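Whiteboard transcription, Tuesday session. T.W. wrote the structure tokens on the left side:
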């Protein structure tokens, strides 16, 4: 038996032995009932419910009077006061922490989504200035209109003519990847159009690297995956290869962009960072990889859930169509195949429907921080130094204390006041985070999602196959629809809209 085989047997046994040792040497506490919250959050219960971690934690939180539980994996909360405390009031005491940044360091380096302290502040300041300009919003919309009109609509039209069934989730993921690459560094990998060789290699490596990095979070102890990495075996060997491919592509883009600086830079994020200061190639590489990771699947996952949800609610779908027609009717000239920025912004009901989708199916449903110094949360929960602290957006969206008895119902109207969209307190709805780390791409995400949804719905009737079937969440790094979303599409009668 070779060394690799021995390690594959030894590692799980070592983890089990250490876990038993840890549990056997814990200081005895007061006797607890079998159904106590402490037992419910035990290691045994965690293992038993690992395949349904979101539902399990949501059930624990719903049963807790404070909306907070202490489990084997850390403190978990759905209490808005605690969320505000963690993300705003005691922000400095709840960084991402060493465990998370170590797991992602090979892939993201010290990019904005994998850093704390001064290094994070520097990147955040620059990125914040760029994200708040009209130039970048216009650039984002221009690219999504180009991708939708030039690639997505023709694909849907061909499927409609042939009567084919499409996996809408896969289609939207490819669209999102192309678009985020254009926004990040103004290159189109061509996933939706059919792939270039370099684009396919980069996209595939990025996907595999992301999935392999996520596997590190499933190790109870850092040493287990670090040992595999040190020895160059198993998933860590493959991860190293995939990260090298991603970094090689990103460095090529960074260096080419720097060489082109004398001829003028564009409006993409990489160009804006290069124009801001003389950052190193590695710093710029880490930034663009981080932004690609952040924007790659979040919008596509939300749109997939959105199209499934409205397929179950014809009344919501009809109201969105009425709004699209109303926005279009204000144009004096024939409408284009896609929408302008002003038209997108005037779609309040669509904005509400997408927000309601995010409430029920947040793309990143469970966020983790690490306590830097002993603390007490507003609800009285004690948190010791080094303890992981998590807030569950998934559970919060299903909490009666926050949203009322109809919290599990898809109800866009809860976001409207006199027909106008009204945002909610971000600590009740932390889908885009809150406090100093509030998502910079929030407005751009809504612009993209509204533009895609409105354009597709105006041109096509999207019919979900087996729409009565309940869709299960598939949670790795992003909350996707398990098994994809098979749909049939058929073209709507033309109402003055130009063909793509």
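and on the right, the sequence the group agreed on:
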């Amino acid at each position: 038996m070779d060394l690799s085989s021995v390690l594959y047997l030894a590692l799980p046994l070592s983890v089990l032995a250490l876990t038993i040792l840890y549990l056997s040497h814990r200081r005895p506490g007061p006797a607890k009932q079998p159904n106590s919250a402490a037992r419910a959050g035990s290691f045994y219960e965690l293992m038993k419910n690992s395949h349904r971690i979101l539902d399990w934690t949501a059930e624990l939180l719903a049963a807790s009077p404070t909306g907070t539980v202490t489990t084997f994996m850390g403190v978990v909360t759905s209490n808005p006061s605690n969320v505000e405390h963690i993300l705003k009031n005691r922000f400095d005491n709840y960084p991402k922490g060493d465990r998370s940044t170590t797991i992602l360091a090979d892939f993201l380096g010290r990019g904005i989504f994998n850093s704390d302290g001064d290094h994070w502040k520097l990147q955040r300041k620059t990125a914040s200035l760029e994200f708040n300009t009209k130039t970048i919003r216009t650039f984002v919309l221009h690219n999504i209109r180009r991708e939708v009109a030039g690639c997505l609509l023709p694909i849907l039209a061909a499927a409609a003519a042939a009567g084919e069934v499409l996996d809408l989730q896969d289609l939207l993921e490819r669209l999102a990847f192309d678009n985020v690459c254009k926004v990040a560094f103004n290159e189109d990998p061509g996933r939706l159009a059919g792939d270039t060789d370099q684009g396919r290699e980069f996209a595939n490596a990025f996907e595999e690297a992301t999935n392999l990095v996520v596997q590190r979070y499933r190790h109870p102890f850092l040493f287990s995956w670090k040992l595999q990495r040190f020895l160059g075996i198993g998933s860590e060997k493959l991860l190293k290869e995939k990260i090298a491919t991603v970094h090689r592509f990103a460095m090529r883009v960074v260096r080419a962009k720097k060489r082109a600086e004398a001829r003028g830079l564009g409006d993409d994020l990489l160009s804006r960072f290069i124009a801001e200061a003389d950052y190193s190639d590695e710093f710029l590489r880490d930034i663009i990889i981080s932004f690609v990771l952040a924007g790659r699947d979040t919008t596509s996952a939300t749109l997939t859930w959105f199209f499934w949800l409205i397929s179950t609610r014809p009344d919501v779908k009809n109201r969105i169509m009425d709004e699209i027609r109303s926005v279009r009717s204000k144009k004096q000239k024939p409408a284009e195949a896609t929408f302008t920025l002003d038209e997108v912004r005037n779609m309040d009901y669509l904005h509400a429907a997408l927000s309601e989708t995010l409430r029920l199916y947040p793309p990143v449903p469970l966020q983790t921080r690490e306590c830097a110094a002993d603390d007490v949360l507003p609800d009285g929960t004690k948190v010791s130094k080094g303890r992981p602290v998590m807030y569950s957006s998934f559970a919060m969206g299903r909490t009666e204390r926050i949203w009322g008895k109809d919290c599990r119902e898809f109800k866009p109207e809860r976001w409207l006041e006199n027909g106008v969209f009204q945002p909610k307190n971000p600590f009740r709805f932390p889908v885009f985070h809150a406090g100093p780390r509030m998502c910079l791409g929030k407005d751009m995400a809504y612009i993209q999602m509204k533009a895609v949804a409105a354009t597709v719905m105006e041109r096509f009737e999207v019919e979900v196959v087996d729409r009565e079937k309940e869709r299960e969440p598939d949670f790795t790094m992003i909350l996707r629809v398990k098994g994809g979303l098979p749909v049939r599409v058929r073209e709507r009668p033309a109402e003055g809209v130009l063909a793509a």
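Someone added at the bottom: The first strand starts at residue 68 and ends at 71.
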